[in-house]
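Backbone-to-sequence.
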């Protein structure tokens, strides 16, 4: 597959999969998500790859879903069409990152918003630069029940998740580190070096032992309700799309979000 919106690079036993739309602040289009999922599968299938790093080219990890594409192509989707589209590209693709048998590390700089937040937090670990920030403003801006994959309470705790989603405010990388949502916080100029150092350290471990340990750790989360919770929220999120609040705010919310992106605020 020839990739047009992601970049793939092998560095020893580490494969880097990078959002590659820096001119769009790495907004996640359907093409980008399809390519990222394909590249993830290829990395899993390649025995030479022991660790996978997901990042972004340029100033930002990702400003979230491509709102322009959504407004132009999916605004008139039926309930069934929207459900099928989001089930595949948001829910299924995210769970494939979570279920990936190889260790995954998100390398985050700049904006990590909504859909980008979802992708990064389905990884096993996050290394973030000091200029990174996290946001999921869709409850406030579009009257939607958070993003499609409600990973939030599992990675930041219930009370922090409620404040984060109810207010739609940004969370700094320093605060995310304080509450344990990210593993390592480094200066921007050290982000790639620090991420690769962690990836290479993990790559030295026996791969089958890592695979089994990850499976047990993920099963521990599933026993606490992770997968059931995520699946249940996806349906709740779909319900929000047919509410009068969403209908009233959709056009204005999308237009305002796109305007903010043009202005460089990324949310």
């Amino acid at each position: 597959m020839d990739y047009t919106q992601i970049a793939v690079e092998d560095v020893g036993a580490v494969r880097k999969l990078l959002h590659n739309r820096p001119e769009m602040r790495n907004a996640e289009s359907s093409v980008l998500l399809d390519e990222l999922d394909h590249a993830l599968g290829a990395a899993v299938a390649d025995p030479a790859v022991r660790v996978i790093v997901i990042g972004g080219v340029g100033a930002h990890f990702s400003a979230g879903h491509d709102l322009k594409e959504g407004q132009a192509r999916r605004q008139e989707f039926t309930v069934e069409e929207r459900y099928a589209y989001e089930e595949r590209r948001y829910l299924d693709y995210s769970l494939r990152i979570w279920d990936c048998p190889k260790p995954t590390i998100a390398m985050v700089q700049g904006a990590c918003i909504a859909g980008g937040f979802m992708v990064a937090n389905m990884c096993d670990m996050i290394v973030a630069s000091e200029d990174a920030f996290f946001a999921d403003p869709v409850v406030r801006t579009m009257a939607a029940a958070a993003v499609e994959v409600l990973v939030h309470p599992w990675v930041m705790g219930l009370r922090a998740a409620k404040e984060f989603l109810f207010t739609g405010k940004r969370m700094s990388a320093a605060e995310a580190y304080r509450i344990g949502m990210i593993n390592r916080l480094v200066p921007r100029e050290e982000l790639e070096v620090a991420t690769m150092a962690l990836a290479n350290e993990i790559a030295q471990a026996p791969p089958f032992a890592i695979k089994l340990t990850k499976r047990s750790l993920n099963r521990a989360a599933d026993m606490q309700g992770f997968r059931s919770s995520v699946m249940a929220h996806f349906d709740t999120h779909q319900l929000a799309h047919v509410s009068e609040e969403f209908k009233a705010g959709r056009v204005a919310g999308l237009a305002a979000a796109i305007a903010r992106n043009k202005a460089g605020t990324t949310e």
